[in-house]
Design goal:
The protein contains seven helices and no strands. It is mostly helical and 150 residues long. It has one domain.
Length: 150
């Protein structure tokens, strides 16, 4: 699955019944959760994956926690629960779709497909996510502030 497919799925997973600012916060958090999920799956296949995809601040788990903390800071418990649930559900759906696309008739072939996917799609996705977050951290914080101000 290409990076654009990940983004498309995440953007279409929003629930229109919630306020726009909560949708924006979900969309800011979902890619972090997706990168974290992908890293867990690929690290199970290749224990060096998490190290190879880490950034200036460490592995994706550090980035995802920081992003989550910034997004939920100052929100009501009900809002926090909704944002976290929706972001996790969107990330899970995208990860499962990508993993299921690697299905094969036998376990060995499936493992090889998953390993190949981890190298060709997942690793660039996680690296790009971390790199983009590092380079655009101020813009991320501004987007969170704008979403919360609405």
């Amino acid at each position: 699955m290409q990076r654009s497919s990940f983004v498309f799925l995440l953007l279409t997973a929003a629930d229109p019944s919630l306020a726009a600012n909560l949708d924006e916060l979900v969309q800011l958090l979902s890619p972090a959760y997706l990168a974290q999920s992908v890293t867990v799956v690929c690290t199970a296949q290749d224990p060096t994956f998490a190290i190879q995809t880490g950034g200036q601040r460490g592995p994706i788990s550090v980035y995802a926690q920081d992003i989550k903390d910034k997004i939920i800071e100052g929100l009501e418990a009900e809002e926090v629960n909704g944002i976290l649930r929706r972001a996790a559900e969107a990330a899970k759906a995208a990860a499962l779709m990508a993993i299921r696309a690697q299905a094969a008739p036998n376990p060995d072939e499936e493992r090889q497909r998953l390993l190949s996917w981890c190298v060709t799609a997942a690793k660039p996705f996680v690296r790009d996510f971390i790199s983009s977050h590092d380079q655009n951290h101020d813009a991320f914080e501004e987007a969170v502030a704008r979403a919360k101000a609405r």
